[in-house]
Amino acid sequence: MSLLDVTGLTKRYGPQIALEGVDLTVPARSRMAIVGPSGSGKTTLLRIIAGFDAPDAGRVMLNGQMLADGPLIAPAHRRGIGYVPQDGALFPHLSVAENIGFGIEAGDPERDQRINELMEMVELDRAMLRRRPHELSGGQQQRVALARALARRPALMLLDEPFSALDTGLREAVRKSVMRVLSQAGITAIMVTHDQAEALSFADQVAVLRGGRLMQAGAPVTLYWQPKDRETALFLGDATMLEAQLGEGFVDCALGRIPAETGARRGSGEIMLRPEQISLSPATVGGQETGACHGEVEEVEFGGALCAITVGVVFGEARIRILVRSPGRDLPATGSRVRLEVQGGAHILER
Q1: pTM
Q2: Domain boundary at 183, 198, 231, which?
Q3: Which residues lie across from 282 on neighbouring strands?
Q4: Which parts of the chain fold into alpha helices (H)?
Q5: Residue 291 contacts by C-beta under 8 Å, 6 or more apart in sequence?
Q6: How many separate domains does the chain show?
Q7: How far does CA 113 lie from the centroid of its chain?
Q8: Reading across the β-sheet that carries 240-246, which strands appear in turn?
Q9: β-pairing verdict for 306-315 and 293-301
Q10: What does the pLDDT profile of the chain (351 residues) look like in tens digits?
Q11: Selection from 33, 61, 347 nearest residue 219 by Cα
């Protein structure tokens, strides 16, 4: 069952197209991540859903209620939507308790109890209730901002790059904490992020915007392994693109013959392989095995648990560079000959 339905959403700023005909469905109790390059329309889409901006055309419906029908919109404070901006936007002159309780009626007899429950929900010690925002760490400030947004018991939570100001280790910890909170509260969430890895790990569904258009939406694993086109593939992670000849259930390319779901397609095409699909082993002494693909290690970039290895493969008159991800132990030396073997199938991209 869907909670949010966006249909034909269009928004322009003068001659600049911010969104064009965007259709999006967000299931209840799910987490969606919206990703895309700068200027793709991510924040504009979030602001229209929140009620901060009005679309030029299109509809936004929440739980069957119309929130926007073209420029006719429901006010933001009547939408039942929580919003957590990038910097938290806490009131600096208010304590943590006052920030969290800002959206709760002052005369509510359960106000203090609700504030304490929210502190526990976002995993903050109640001893912090009297502190001001400047006395908190970045991660603590974001948790307070989340608690404040949860105070009104919203049906939908919008997160606008909420972890981007945090360092890498803290960002992961806060993200996992937020995921737990949202799941326990049963709240549907939409997050805008520029971090592809963050989107893939946070969301049940990922939507990719480019140039104001929705290019592809679906489960993270589907978008990662089966992107529609080259741009989407590269935006969601490292990939090697190769020209190939398509046969019945296979493709022939610089790395040899690889299984692929070709369907009725034949002739030439472009395929994608992720770096973790390719494994390396020392080349056979005295020649190449029949059908095996060999190359020369051009570059090794040590990255601890996972390292990047670039291998040059000669195919016809061209030398093709293949990116491989490999564990940090027993790395091949630069200049050494290696054998490349592909695990799994190739994905055929749309032209």
Answers
A1: 0.87
A2: 231
A3: 338
A4: 42-50, 96-100, 111-121, 138-150, 168-185, 196-202, 220-225, 230-235
A5: 256, 257
A6: 2
A7: 35
A8: 256-259, 250-253, 240-246, 267-273, 347-348
A9: antiparallel
A10: 789 999 999 999 999 999 999 999 999 999 999 999 888 999 999 999 999 999 999 999 999 999 999 999 999 988 989 988 877 688 899 899 989 888 787 777 888 888 988 888 888 888 899 999 999 888 888 888 888 888 888 999 999 888 777 777 777 888 888 888 888 889 999 999 988 888 999 999 999 999 999 999 999 999 999 999 999 999 999 999 999 999 999 999 999 999 999 999 999 999 999 999 999 999 876 555 555 799 999 999 999 889 999 999 999 889 999 999 999 888 999 999 999 999 999 999 987
A11: 33
Bridge partners, 311 (sequence order): 297, 322
Query: Which domain, by its residues, includes 211?
Result: 2-231
201 shares its domain with 298: no
Domain co-membership, 15 together with 112: yes
| Distance in angstroms (rounded) separating the CA atoms of residues 184 and 31 | 13
351, with CB counted inside 10 A (0-12, 13-18, 19+), is exposed
326 and 307 Cβ atoms separated by less than 8 Å:
yes
Give the CA angle between residues 303, 306, 311 to the nearest 5°.
90
Judged by DSSP in three states, 223 sits in helix
Q: Is the four-CA dihedral 18, 22, 27, 30 of positive or negative sign? A: negative
Return the CATH number at 322.
Answer: 2.40.50.100
From 37, 33, 71, select the one nearest 53 (Cα to Cα).
71
Residues 284 and 204 in one domain: no
CATH of the domain at 120: 3.40.50.300
